[in-house]
Amino acid sequence: MRGQDGKRRVVSGDHLIAATGYRSDARRLQFLAPRIVDRLALIGSTPRLSAHFESSVRGLYFVGPVSATSFGPVMRFAFGAVFTSPRIARHLAA
């Protein structure tokens, strides 16, 4: 790794945590029209989701890191899909 001064540094340890600083923000999703974003009920900057991952805009679902506020940090990882996929599928089939 290189420090801000450009010098090479060696960092060693038993574990690595990649804290990228990624922050979910529904208002920054450019593929959503502003009129849709304005209708979203938010918790901070993320959509408030139902038990089926549906937002306050009927038929609009959110999965992945943006759903972590409503469902917990496991939603930030692919493992969360094991929980998410069947839940949404059952809701859509109903």
Topology:
Layout: H1 34-37, E1 42-43, E2 46-47, H2 68-71, H3 81-93
Antiparallel strand pairs: 1-2
Radius of gyration: 18 Å
Low-pLDDT segments: none
Q: How do the SSEs run, as a string of H and E?
A: HEEHH
**What helical percentage do the residues reach?**
10-25%
Average pLDDT taken over every residue: 85
How many structural domains does the protein architecture include? 1
Class derived from helix and strand content: mainly alpha
In whole angstroms, the N-to-C terminal distance is 52 Å
Task: Describe what you observe in this structure.
- With 94 residues, the chain is mainly alpha-helical.
- It contains 3 helices and 2 strands.
- The protein has one domain (26-93).
- The chain has a two-stranded antiparallel sheet.
- A hairpin with a 2-residue loop joins strand 1 (42-43) and strand 2 (46-47).
- It is flat, with a radius of gyration of 18 Å.
Task: Jot down its keywords.
94 residues; mainly alpha; single chain; two-stranded antiparallel sheet
Care to give the gist of this entry?
This protein is mainly α and 94 residues long. It is built from three helices and two strands; from the N terminus they run αββαα.
